[in-house]
Amino acid sequence: MQYEKNRSVKGVALTSGQRFPLTIKRLGINGEGIGYFKHKVVFVPNALPAEVIVAEVVRDNPHYATAKVHKIREKSPHRVAKRDDYDVGGIELEQLAYEKQLEFKRDIMMQSLEKFKPRGYRHFILKQTLGMKVPYEYRNKAQFQVRQNERGEVVAGLYKRGTHELVALPTFSTQRPLTMKIMRIVCRLLQKYEVPIYNEQQNSGIVKTLVVRESVATGQAQLVFVTNSPKFPHKKPLLAELQQAVPQLSSVMQNINMNQDALIWGAETNLLAGQDFIVDQLGTVKFKLSARAFFQLNPSQTEVMYRKVEEALDLEKGETLIDAYCGVGTIGLFVGQNASEVRGMDITPAAITDARANAQLNKRTNTRYECGKAEEVIPQWIKEGFVADALVVDPPRTGLDSELLKTIITVRPRKFVYVSCNPATLARDLKELVKVYQVECIQPIDMFPQTARSEAIVKLTLR
After folding, report:
1. Rg of the chain on CA atoms, in Å
2. 187 an active-site residue?
3. Which one is catalytic: 187, 326, 371, 421?
4. Which contacts qualify for 93-98: CB closer than 8 Å, 24 or more apart?
5. CA dihedral sign of residues 63, 68, 73, 75
6. Is this model's pTM higher than 0.85 or not?
7. What mean pLDDT is predicted for residues 199-222?
8. What value does the mean pLDDT take over residues 35-41?
9. N or C terminus: fewer CB in 10 A for the chain?
10. Amino acid 85: pLDDT
11. DSSP 3-state assignment of 72?
12. pLDDT band at 286; cut points 50, 70, 90
């Protein structure tokens, strides 16, 4: 199966609602089918390579069009029945057989390498994607918007793709069952106690978003009500009934966000019931997670990934490690047990507070965490005389900061592992890194089955 990035070839003008036969040639980087109609590229979500469909135009642009599947005339042999038939993000590949999803994610990495062409990329060892035995019920966190539907019922879900139209999600097969149970119960109680629900058009009402996180390791769950006001009518009876219905709910918080922007979180978070954190665990390492703490969404695959990082770093007793973009300290605490010192940095103060608490929770006395940008903190540490033996980076989707790239190339840590959540920015960064490093191997890992997202671990050694 072949996949490729978007092409920009100007073609015939199309009109919304126009229908025509279309053969799907390949998948794009976002998991959408790609076909060509009179030399114009057409992107069709839910369509698969080798399928012949009747496409219906949704939107036309000078160089491409988007369409939806009106009818499938010839099905792909790799099409499977979807568990969730919702037009929302997070399940864009659910109609593709899982083994083909894993092939797709490896090929997306190859496409990115072919685009940026880091030196020697044709000889990189690109391994098969590590997938899950059961690629469902893995997400340990959900952020669902809450609204009232046309019948006045309180519902929670995600926005329809490309809109602000809420799609109610009574089920969602990639989420953990307890997470969905809590969502359903909370919606029922909000309805029962007539708590005002947010109206986006009028900027009125109170409850906007529900954020649920659960720990697979400890069974604890945390719920955050994101509200449009500090007020919360009927919260006492609602919370009492909620805790009786879900005894695993050990942390209930209220976050106040009175802004009308797209950001979920506001600045103020208050405890409503229980404690202000839950505890999760990866391997033997425990983590205290506050309401806004970042933690990987797929715990079983996270442990697979961190063991691969540990294997690639191969830290010996007495070596030092820098954990850049450390978040709550997950990677450094997991892989750095033998290190003489682990240092990490992150730009989010709350993450550093959590990282320090997690080091204390695990009785680690070999750690140091600072708030700041990696490209600024690492040079300062070097000035102080701390030059690490090993480096692990886990940057956001934007990839490594250009100044950090320069610092890495100058300092040249002997052991280096890059954890990537974006094949394109990884390939771009490798173009610079291969000037001083050799890519030993790239290991794709499927952290998000049923989606087009792909992650990878890269082991690099000095030339």
Report:
1. 24
2. no
3. 421
4. 93/31, 93/450, 93/451, 93/452, 94/173, 94/450, 95/46, 95/48, 96/31, 96/48, 98/131, 98/135, 98/449
5. positive
6. yes
7. 95
8. 94
9. C
10. 87
11. strand
12. very high
